[in-house]
Amino acid sequence: MHKMILTMALAACSVPLLLIAQNGNVVLPQDKGPDKINVSTYPPAQQKAYSLFVSKCSACHTIARPINTTMTQGEWERYVKRMMHKPNSGISDSQGKEIYEFLVYDQVNRKDKNPSAFYKFLSDEEIEKLRAQQQ
Length: 135
Ligand code: HEC
Fold this sequence. Notes:
single chain; 135 residues; mainly alpha; Cytochrome Bc1 Complex, Chain D, domain 2; two-stranded parallel ribbon; 6 helices; 2 strands; binds heme C
């Protein structure tokens, strides 16, 4: 019983530490938006890719971050590669491609139709500024 309580206490303490280490302890405006997409009208391939996207792209930050960020197709291509190449991303080349295709479909069919509901991605400088403000 005591062991179980200890394990639970340790787990509770290490979760926030893990999050801080991986996302650099910064909250972006996109993180506060919705954390789900209704994909019921998306083609089957995109519905399948959505599950992969949710499981892979929520490892270091909230899934709300990519869900509420708008980018061009070329920017998504660069961004998925950037995320894949982070240490321990756990995303293979073929998974990255599938996620990229999902993001492009979602960009055109959801985000581009209602651009004011989403956030333009931030530059590295803007992220650094937020990080400094939040410390
Ligand atoms: C290994 C950790 C990790 C994984 C996995 C990860 N990200 Fe990120 N992501 C980050 C970090 C750290 C940042 C902050 C900016 C930076 O350091 O590049 C970030 C920032 C972002 C941003 C904010 C862009 C901006 O500039 O406003 C988006 C969008 C994003 N990630 C999308 C994704 C997508 C899509 C996936 C899945 C393919 C993903 N992330 C997987 C760590 C990760």
